[in-house]
Amino acid sequence: MIKTVVSTYGEFIGEVDEGADVVVIKKPKMVIQSEKGFGFAKGVCVTSVSEPEEVTIQKANVVMVVDTNPEVLKAYEE
Question: What is the SS3 assignment for 54?
């Protein structure tokens, strides 16, 4: 299921699989904001490949996992 994950590093959208100690996000997109609204970064950090298959975040660094706004989900899927 596609979810929004807010971590201590940033906000991500993707298919979430929660493990005991980690959250794995498949097909992750990092959410960025500008004066014109929100968008998606080309990678998940400055030096990552442009579209990683997945990222793993330690649960200690996850602030929350929530359902994604339908409009944002539509933009993610495009």
Answer: strand
Find residue 7's DSSP bridge partners: 62
Q: Taking the CA of residue 42 as centre, how many other CA atoms within 13 Å lie in the half-sphere pointing to its CB?
A: 5
Q: Which residue has the tokens 């442009």?
A: 50
Residue 27 is encoded by which pair of tokens? Answer: 């097909």
- Tens-digit pLDDT profile for residues 43-76: 998 889 999 999 999 999 999 999 999 999 999 9
Tokens of 40: 């998606």
- The mean predicted confidence, pLDDT, of the chain is 94
Please state, in angstroms and rounded to a whole number, the distance separating the CA atoms of residues 59 and 63. 8
